Amino acid sequence: MFCGLIFLFLILPLFIVLPISLSSSKYLEFPPKGLSLQWYRNFFGTKEWVIATFNSIKVATMTSILASLLGIPAALTLSKQKFKGAQYIYSFFLLPMILPAIIVAIAVYFHFAKLKLLGNIYSLTLAHTILAIPIVLITVSASLQGFDQNLEYAAMNLGANRLKTFFKVIFPLIRPGVFSGALFAFITSFDEIVIAIFLSGYRAVTLPRHMWNSIREEIDPTIAAVSSILILTSVFLLLSIAMLKRRGERMRGQKLSEGTEM
Amino acid sequence: MAEKKWKETIFHGQVLYKYGLLFPIFLYLLFFFIYPLMKMFLTSVFDPSFTLKNYIRLYENPVYLEVILMTFRLSLLVTAISLFIGYPLAYFLSHIDHKISQILMIFVVLPFWTSILVRVYAWMVILGRNGIINSLLMKLGLISTPLNLLFNTFSVTVGMVHFLLPFMVFPLYSTMNGIDKNLVMAAYNLGASPFKAFFKVFLPLSLPGVGAGSLIVFILGIGFFITPSLLGGRGDIVISMLIENQVNVQFNWPFASAIAFVLLIFTLIIFNIANRFLGINRIWGGRF
Questions:
Q1: Within 10 Å of residue B14's Cβ, how many Cβ atoms?
Q2: What ipTM was assigned to the predicted interfaces of this complex?
Q3: I need a surface site. Which of A58, A182, B50, B174 has the fewest CB within 10 A?
Q4: Radius of gyration of chain A (CA)
């Protein structure tokens, strides 16, 4: 009973915006008297919203790629080596996740202001990558747990070089972890607001940044429409990640059972 | 001899392999993360020669001190509420069938991965003057004028608990899942009441999860920015908002840097305690 209420507390606010986004009235009302798609039309028909959406997609995609390129090799290295400093290095890489976003945001803002790098999607990507690196690192490290090191040695014994071993043996095994890490990095950047407040300026306004402006000015149900789209995006991405996770577990399970048979 | 040489090559290869792949990420964080933080610190103590005036100003002005205290109080309150409602939730999730709990976990994970702006907006809609709660209560005839539920400490607290509750539930749930339920059974068998079995056996075993969850919620709580800015009233100023104000309104970067650095130190101290006693994996466990 108590738990049911908490579940409602957690989930209800997300689903309350759906009916509001479909309201036919001019202002906020609940429950809506009539249904219409006017707020979605308003969203897709307003230049600022569309540009902001594309900016967010671009930044999130680039962030996801960059964070993966930096994070995957690090996760591979750290999971393999049991040297003493490994835990410290790992903690160091996770720091951006612990520190309040505002600290990272203003430090990077001052830095980029001096380099004249404000108000473009590339500097935003560079900053978002700082936050996405820990996410990739954790996800890929988790997928490496239970990874059988002998497979790697076997490949190298059979004459494969490191690169070939990586692409033919290691990567296929950790692929689900890599993809979910990339997706998590994508969501992290796509929803990021604090850094965007400082870095986006006028020319690199992202979706959360534009939402922030609109929420502060006036709350019209267009935000409900945007929110609904964002929630559905999260649902979709989380479902993909859940599927990837299951595939990863199945794959590792298979490998382990094959191992025991031998 | 041949064996020694073979070993040597492997060893040298290993060393390069060991550290080589860490270089790009290391350089990246050094240039885009550590260096800016260091510059920020230097900005706070050089103006243009060494000075501590920004820190002294922060310490001496009662207004700023009040903001810092307010931030800690708020974060403490949010941590307490999150623990109070997160503990039973995690207990429930760890005591039902694993398949069902996996499904129910969606209720915790989905909000976790939803934009904070969406969640803040939802609370504005729920708590506003013409919001859902007020219209419902007025329709039922329980109140005649709308209650002031939004833009005060209450709405900030609700919004923060809603955002931070998953951070409490994840470590609690993973800790409780690791507790051997037979121990509680054994306590029953030895004649303990359910009450006693819980307090003497289960609760002590779940304390690492309580510690991890509380510390992470507290750390994130003192750095919160979006929720207090959008849901708070005139008096609800937290450290992050003070920093933002100094950067964007007062244009006083050195002072903003000083406040940010103080916040950084607080965060690192608490995180260090958490990491030392509980281990980083427990804090982040079960989320991804």
A1: 12
A2: 0.87
A3: B50
A4: 22
Distance in Å, alpha carbon of A127 to nearest chain B alpha carbon: 7
Tell me which chain B residue has its CA closest to the CA of residue A163: B17
Place of tokens 């350089």: B27
Q: Do A107 and B128 touch (CB under 8 A)?
A: no
A130: tokens are: 């700082």
What's the CATH fold of domain A46-261? MetI-like fold (1.10.3720)
| 8 A C-beta contact, residue A193 and residue B117 | yes
Radius of gyration of chain B (CA): 25
CA distances for A28 relative to A24, B75, B125, angstroms: 10, 31, 8
Q: Judge whether A102 is closer than 8 Å to chain B, CB to CB.
A: yes
B84 contacts chain A (CB < 8 A): no
Chain B residues whose CB is inside 8 A of the A92 CB are: 29
pLDDT (tens digit per residue) in A15-45: 888 888 888 777 666 677 778 888 899 899 9
- Domain ranges within chain A, ordered by starting residue: 1-37, 46-261
Nearest to A102 among B117, B219, B225 (CB): B225
DSSP string, B133-162: HHHHHHHTTS-SS----SSSHHHHHHHHHH
Distance, in Å, from the CA atom of A235 to the CA atom of A241, rounded to the nearest integer, reads 10
Check if the beta carbon of residue A59 is closer than 8 Å to that of residue A128.
yes
Q: What is the pLDDT of residues B158-168, one digit of tens each?
A: 999 999 999 99
Contact assignment for A104 to B117 by CB distance below 8 Å: no
**Tokens 């104000």, residue?**
B245
Reported pTM:
0.88
Which of A98, A127, A197 is closest, CB to CB, to B219? A98
CB contact set of A70 (below 8 Å; sequence gap of 6+): A129, A133, A136, B24, B25, B28
Which of A49-63, A95-109, A241-255, B44-58 has the least mean pLDDT? Answer: A241-255
Residue of B nearest to A139 (CA): B288
- B262 vs chain A: nearest CA distance in angstroms? 10
Distance from CA of B105 to the nearest CA of A (A): 9
**What is the token pair recorded at A64?**
């996801």
Measure Cα distances from A157 to A161, A162, A167, B20, B274 in Å: 9, 11, 16, 22, 43
Residue A148 distance to chain B (closest CA, Å): 18
Size of chain B, expressed as the number of residues it contains: 288
Using CB atoms within 10 Å of the CB of residue B223, give its burial: 0 to 12 exposed, 13 to 18 middle, 19+ buried.
buried
Asked if residues B225 and B244 have their Cβ atoms less than 8 Å apart, the reply is: yes
Check residue B274 and give its pLDDT. Answer: 79
Residue A202, token pair as written in the block: 């006028």
3-state secondary structure (DSSP) of residue B50: strand
Contact of A223 with chain B, judged by CB distance below 8 Å, is answered with yes
Residues B259 and B20: their CA atoms lie apart, in Å, by 37
